[in-house]
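User: My instructor asked us to take a sequence, write out its structure as tokens, and then describe one feature of it. I'm not sure where to start. Here is the sequence I was given:
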Amino acid sequence: MNLLPATITEILSQKPLHVVKFDFEGNSLSMMSLDLSDKVTTNKRVNLTVNPSYIALAKSFSGVMSYTNQIEAIIISIEQGVLLSAIKLQVGETVLESIITAESTQRMELKRGDKVTMLIKASELSIVEVLG
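Assistant: Let's start with the prediction itself. The structure tokens for your sequence are:
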């Protein structure tokens, strides 16, 4: 699992749904949630998590799409398998991993040092720890 250290910047609620906004390494992120702990309040530091297979990658991306969370990253390594590739990504001080198909890695001609856009649906982020 990926850990993203973030700060809660805003909480929007329309019971039973909540949209929580965060600052992560200078990037704005959003998460949708049905249940929120009382500990989840603005200005709190949290660790977010997202499964590596839920991080899509775009190269030379332009345009508008429904993915709220779009984060610029640099590829620092690629572990190429027969079916899947594990892509390590640097965002500020944080290293994250995306798992995509080997076919996509080849089709996109991904390599170490490439600048890519990580795409994460708001429904795929979750808070694993409230730090204070």
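For the description part of your assignment, you could build on this observation: Residues 64 and 70 are 11 Å apart (CA to CA). Try explaining in your own words what that tells you about the chain.
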